[in-house]
Amino acid sequence: MGSAARESASTCSIADVTEQSRSTPPDRARSTPDADRPSTGNPAEDVLDQSQPDDVPDQPQADDVVDVGRIGPAHGVGGEVFVEPRTDQPELRFAPGARLRTWPPTAAPLTVEWARYQGNRFVVRFAGVADRAAAAALHGIRLQILTTDRDELEDPDEFYDSDLIGLQARSPAGTPIGPIIDVLHMAGGDYLLLDVSGVERMVPFVRAIVTAVDLRAATVIVDAPHGLFEL
């Protein structure tokens, strides 16, 4: 894990499925957070830039914080910015008065004045950011909270993405498979993205395949159907 993981309390749940559901998933299919967002009519603001500006350095591993958003381009001339939420609770994390840590920390802390959806896009105004130039200077900043600020999950089969990323996948016999490098939330369900000998492989997050998750041991047991890692 080279950086803080998103809060994404899409909180994966291990789904119950029948053996007939153990089909081999596509080798690779990433979701694009902003792909379905409608056009604003302004080419400069149509796409929330997925790339990170060159002057935003990578964050050293930090297990005590998680991302809840990333600041995109400036919106308008009054200091507002587009934000890519990385939480299932944007109304809570970006409530007026909420104070957010940042990476890099030069802009920290940022206090939310207000936030709203404009169509399917999320617009935030931070205290002290008075004009477009100041808003543009925040582009690429990652917004974070302490892991201790997250809600505790009551369902033992429900997990935060950031708790799964970095776990080592093993076979039922204990053979190492590879680390979880991402969690994908797709229309057909949740998938664990594994690095298997340098190749990314998707594993359906269902009980018939992911038979155990042990956060203390930092492992998951993957009972892979034939052909899952051979595409």
Helicity range: under 10%
Biggest beta sheet summary: 6 strands, antiparallel, barrel
* CATH class category label of the largest domain: Mainly Beta
The CATH architecture category of the largest domain equals Roll
Number of H- or I-type helical stretches: 3
What are the main properties of this structure?
6% helix; 3 helices; mainly beta; single chain; 231 residues; Elongation Factor Tu (Ef-tu), domain 3; SH3 type barrels; 6-stranded antiparallel β-barrel; 2 domains
Summarize this entry quickly.
6% of the residues lie in helices and 36% in strands. It is mainly beta and 231 residues long. The protein has two domains: 12-28 and 152-222, Roll (SH3 type barrels), CATH 2.30.30.240; 65-149, RimM (Elongation Factor Tu (Ef-tu), domain 3), CATH 2.40.30.
Task: Give a written overview of the molecule.
With 231 residues, the chain is mainly beta. The protein is 6% helix and 36% strand. It has helices spanning 90-93, 132-136, 161-164; strands spanning 12-13, 65-75, 80-85, 99-103, 110-118, 121-126, 142-146, 158-159, 168-170, 176-186, 189-196, 199-204, 210-214, 219-222. The model is unreliable at 1-5 and 17-48 (pLDDT under 50).
